[in-house]
Design brief:
The structure is a single chain. This protein is of the alpha/beta class and 486 residues long. The protein contains 21 helices and 13 strands. The chain has 2 domains: 271 residues, 3-Layer(aba) Sandwich (Rossmann fold), CATH 3.40.50.720; 201 residues, N-(1-d-carboxylethyl)-l-norvaline Dehydrogenase, domain 2, CATH 1.10.1040. 48% of the residues lie in helices and 12% in strands. The strands form 4 sheets. The protein has a 5-stranded parallel sheet with strand order 5-2-1-6-9, sandwiched between helices. A 3-stranded mixed sheet has the order 4-3-11, with helices on both faces. The radius of gyration is 23 Å and the shape is globular. The termini are far apart. The structure holds D-mannonic acid (CS2). The site of D-mannonic acid has 9 residues, from helix 10 and helix 14.
């Protein structure tokens, strides 16, 4: 086994069939700061930017980890280079060069803020997951500990919102134009929510700053899509074998990828369309379709599949009772509640998603998708339920995955297994007290951050209780029986 490391020197020695940057990296300039430089960013937006750099050197990325140092420690010795494995019948490896700098904000806060105020930086992108926005009922949660802390210390922020506002404050003070702020997270109206959060935070510090941001900065909406299973040792070993050198943190994703971006940039933009990005003024249609028809079924598979002791999405799709239920859920219960973008063919979109879920080349663990349910359930399922109720349509099947989540939380809590969720403590406290009856549902519904305002709707409460009871003792057999009857 080699101990050579992937870096700017070893790049030239890689086997010829490994795709690598076909531009002069040294000639690129950092034009983008990305907050949340995790696997999804590196497998998705950074790959588009890698293509952009072949046309325009002004948009290399400074990747920032807000909470951890691991990505910085893995990639700094590699000059920011890492490998992307595209999973398919014939997996392909590609070395990505778009990350020119990787910083850990907790240790290098000054450098991060200096980058945000750098005149060459004209775009800030984010993948900080749903919880990173610190929202409650779609508005900034001023009681969130990170927001409380950042409002007391706005010049040394820890949250994404605090970083954006301090970066913009410095730019205003230096009479620089603002940067565009582009959210790449799975939230409906991601740009609109982020804009409101940033302006509300700024307004607590400095009213003029808030007005300047509201008038001059833009927050385009975007929809991102590519299935990105977490990195594992099998990937590390395969990459080392094929590259002939070690990559401490390669990433992997399916070959399919989509990025739809609203064309509202306040300070220039990369030629994204040259890299295959769709520029659109109808993001709401795309993000709704994706959240409701891909992410919601994903969460349904994650909770119901985990109760059935299944480990991956492909295995869940090979389990007829579960795959059949999820397909009916998509076609009959969700699709009628998706206001489609222009020219959108729901049946075809669903076919393609089911095919992607079945991909046997991808080991996408249900436990990964099950994380952060308190953040995902509202945007993936409860909005659809609210729309169905308003339109007088049945919500019974839609309540099954929500009930699956409650059963899953209860099972983890009773077993003393940690729940990965920003509301883990509150969820575990409810889960531990559950007795398996319909009354459990009422205890969960008191979690306002998740269930308000639906918890006051008797039709929702009734349907959720029925679904919860139908899952029986939530054993594999009981769940299978319940799903076959839905
Ligand atoms: C998944 C998503 O982990 C999850 O919750 O539903 O990450 C999903 O794979 C991506 O959004 C696909 O684009």
């Amino acid at each position: 086994m080699t101990d050579r490391r992937l870096d700017a020197t070893t790049l030239a020695t890689l086997p010829p069939d490994i795709q690598r940057p076909d531009y002069d990296r040294a000639a690129t300039r950092i034009g983008i700061v990305h907050l949340g430089v995790g696997a999804f960013h590196r497998a998705h937006q950074a790959v588009y930017v890698d293509d952009v750099l072949a046309h325009d050197p002004a948009w290399a990325i400074c990747g920032v980890s807000l909470n951890s140092v691991e990505v910085r420690d893995a990639l700094a010795p590699q000059d920011g280079l890492y490998t992307l494995a595209l999973l398919g019948e014939r997996p392909r490896l590609r070395v990505i060069g778009a990350l020119r700098e990787v910083l850990a904000a907790r240790e290098e806060g000054g450098r991060v803020l200096a980058r945000l105020a750098d005149p060459d930086v004209r775009l800030v992108t984010l993948t900080i997951t749903e919880k990173g926005y610190c929202l409650a009922a779609d508005e900034l949660d001023f009681a969130h500990p990170d927001i409380v802390r950042d409002l007391e210390n706005p010049r040394t922020p820890v949250s994404a919102i605090g970083h954006l506002v301090e970066g913009l404050r410095r730019r205003k003070a230096q009479r620089l134009p603002p940067f565009t702020v582009l959210s790449c997270d799975n939230l409906p109206d991601n740009g609109g929510k982020l804009r409101r959060a940033v302006v509300a935070f700024a307004d607590r510090i400095d009213h003029d700053l808030a007005c300047w941001i509201a008038e001059n900065a833009t927050f385009p909406r975007s929809m991102v899509d590519s299935i990105t299973p977490a990195t594992d040792d099998a990937l590390r070993d395969r990459v080392a074998g094929e590259l002939g050198c070690i990559d401490a943190w390669p990433v992997q994703r399916e070959a399919y990828t989509q990025w739809v971006v609203e064309d509202a940039f306040c300070n220039g933009r990369p030629p994204l369309e040259r890299a295959g990005v769709t520029m659109s003024d109808d993001i709401a249609g795309y993000d709704r379709a994706k959240l409701r028809l891909l992410n919601a079924p994903h969460s349904a598979l994650a909770y119901l599949g985990s109760l059935m002791e299944i480990e991956t999405v492909a295995q869940a799709m090979a389990t007829p009772v579960l795959a059949g239920f999820v397909e009916r859920l998509m076609r009959e219960a969700i699709a009628p509640n998706v206001a489609a973008p222009r020219g959108f063919d729901a049946a075809h979109y669903i076919d393609a998603i089911l095919e992607r879920f079945r991909n046997p080349a991808i080991q996408h663990r249900l436990s990964q998708i099950a994380w952060d349910g308190s953040q995902k359930i509202p945007v993936r399922l409860l909005g659809t339920i609210a729309d169905a109720l308003a339109a007088g349509r049945s919500i019974d099947p839609l309540c099954v995955p929500v009930a699956g989540w409650l059963r899953y939380v209860r099972r983890q809590a009773k077993a003393g297994v940690a729940i990965v969720d920003p509301m883990a403590d509150a969820l575990a406290a409810v889960g531990r007290q559950c007795d398996g009856s319909a009354a459990d549902v009422d205890a969960f519904l008191r979690l306002d951050a998740v269930f308000a305002p639906l918890s006051a709707d008797a039709r929702f409460v009734g349907a959720l209780r029925v679904a919860y009871v139908a899952l029986g003792d939530a054993s594999s057999e009981a769940v299978a029986r319940a799903l076959s009857e839905m």
